[in-house]
Write a structure and sequence with these properties.
The structure holds 2 protein chains of 2 kinds. Chain A is mostly helical. Chain A contains 11 helices and no strands. The two termini of chain A are 39 Å apart. The longest helix of chain B has 17 residues, at 158-174. Chain B: GO terms for molecular function: ATP binding; ATP hydrolysis activity.
């Protein structure tokens, strides 16, 4: 007699590929494979684009010599400090203007005017004022990252549901409680959008700043390699920037899923 | 003010930008009484409730609460649940409380509203009726003496609405709460309240006392009388108690 098979038994026997985990890597893997094959068969000249293997070998060589870790760490330092300063100022301004109508009237118009100046256009001015030392590059990153954080913090705070504020008032919350229990958590999704956007601006600004006025950093490495027509190192620097950008995005996403876990729950999860 | 009055409203007026929302409203509400405010939209029901809750101030007149610490002894439940979406059900209950035994009290109230298994859920995991039960439990957290209900059942389906009506009536009776319910549903008012106040043309134009332990026939009669008063029609002759 044939043993009856329940639906759950059938499901248990099926093999599931972790499609969600594989899909994001599919296109980069295909591009690298095509790139490598094209280089190996000579369809793509190394003077146009060196092969992925050549770039990898260059990366290993520069890591062993200590040049890549040194330049990478200085770029990370500039990016992090610039983001902390710019993001901090942006958050404070967004908070003040979001909470107070008087401050909003006083500051917002001027900030919006300043925001519309492309911050990279300030490079000549920054070099004249601060030279080509660390403070110049950190200042540029800070200016670039300040506005996305400001706009989103300001918008997040000023658009908190007034019904929740009224509910807090009816529970006699103090100003501090009102901020930490209602306003800040309600504005947090928007603030995190600003930080994520600022991370993108941070790398773009740093690449330009290090290419134009630096004696160290990944941007300087790429610029220096260009002078010696060292294509492997130029491409390596671009790949390093792409990896750093991706890591920043992953860090921002983990923050979002940790701080906003309530958004990911729903009736279907019960 | 009557000695037994929990809430006394004397000649209250409320004007918003030349628009009169309340005109010369006077009302005494006794301790433990269940009042329903009914009437057409724009009649001033919610405005009166907000003045009692202290969320707004009258343009003139006096609203007096017969308690020393009137604000913490008074809680409002709104039509929208107003739960904080980033807090669990249990945290939503305890967030406004200063009591040390908050969590234990919150658990008791969740039991009362039959939601103990949902303590760790977030509001977006609950149905509309469950959210309103959490909102009711939160309103009861500080052991209020006055419960203000601003159309809390308006968005619920008929069955959930009936269950919530029973739950609210049961809690208010057991805890001897002075309750004011704002509702568009006259039958709901006739079913739940001891006294119905009709708000019309920005003032309390008519009152109807409801009999104790009323049956469905009596609820129908009261509903008809109040409706005809609101619509200025003659009451239906067909209903009998």
């Amino acid at each position: 007699m044939q043993k009856p098979v329940t639906i759950s038994d059938t499901r248990r026997k099926q093999f599931h590929l972790p499609v969600d985990k594989i899909l994001p890597f599919l296109i980069p893997i295909i591009v690298i494979l095509i790139w490598q094959v094209s280089s190996t068969f000579g369809w793509l000249s190394s003077s146009v684009l060196p092969s992925p293997m050549a770039v990898l070998q260059d990366g290993i060589k520069l890591t062993q010599s200590g040049e890549l870790p040194k330049n990478l760490s200085i770029s990370l330092y500039r990016a992090t400090v610039g983001l902390l300063i710019g993001g901090g100022i942006g958050f404070i301004l967004g908070f003040i203007n979001g909470m107070s109508k008087t401050f909003r009237l006083l500051f917002d118009s001027s900030i919006q005017m300043f925001r519309n100046i492309p911050h990279l256009a300030l490079i000549p001015l920054i070099i004249i004022w601060l030279g080509i030392n660390e403070s110049a590059k950190i200042s540029l990153v800070a200016i670039g990252t300040m506005f996305p954080v400001y706009i989103n913090t300001f918008h997040g705070i000023s658009s908190v549901d007034p019904d929740l504020i009224e509910m807090g008032k009816s529970y006699e919350l103090s100003k501090g409680q009102m901020f930490f229990k209602i306003i800040f958590p309600a504005a947090l999704p928007q603030i995190l959008v600003g930080i994520r956007y600022a991370l993108g601006v941070m790398w773009t600004t740093l690449i330009v700043a290090e290419t134009i006025s630096a004696s160290s950093g990944i941007g300087y490495m790429a610029n220096n390699a260009e002078d010696f027509v060292d294509m492997e190192t130029v491409v390596l620097c671009i790949v390093v920037y792409a990896i750093l950008g991706k890591i920043s995005d992953l860090v921002a996403k983990s923050f979002e899923s940790f701080l906003l876990d309530w958004q990911n729950t729903g009736r279907s999860n019960i | 003010m009557n000695n037994n009055s929990m809430i006394s409203i004397k000649n209250v007026n409320k004007i918003y930008n030349n628009l009169t929302a309340l005109h010369d409203v006077s009302l005494d509400i006794q301790q433990g009484e269940f009042i329903a405010l009914v009437g057409m939209s724009g009649g001033g029901k919610s405005t009166l409730l907000r003045l009692i809750a202290g969320l707004e101030q009258p343009t003139s007149g006096l609203v007096t609460i017969n308690e020393t610490d009137s604000k913490s002894l008074m809680r409002v439940m709104f039509q929208e649940d107003r739960l904080l979406p980033w807090m669990s059900v249990l945290d939503n209950l305890s967030f406004g409380s200063k009591d040390k035994n908050t969590k234990a009290h919150a658990q008791e109230l969740l039991e009362l509203v039959e939601l103990t298994t949902y303590a760790d859920h977030f509001p977006n995991q609950l149905s509309g009726g469950q959210k309103q039960r959490v909102a009711l439990a939160r309103a009861l957290m500080t052991n209020p003496k006055i419960l203000l209900l601003d159309e809390p059942l308006g968005a619920l389906d008929a069955l959930t609405r009936r269950k919530m009506q029973d739950l609210i009536m049961d809690i208010c009776q057991k805890q001897n709460l002075t309750t004011i319910l704002v509702t568009h549903d006259v039958e709901e008012a006739a079913r739940m309240a001891d006294r119905i106040i009709v708000m019309k043309d920005s003032t309390n134009s008519y009152e109807e006392s409801c009999p104790k332990n009323r049956n469905s026939g009596q609820i129908g009669i009261v509903t008809d009388r109040v409706l005809s008063e609101i619509l200025e029609e003659k009451p239906s002759q067909q209903r009998t108690a």
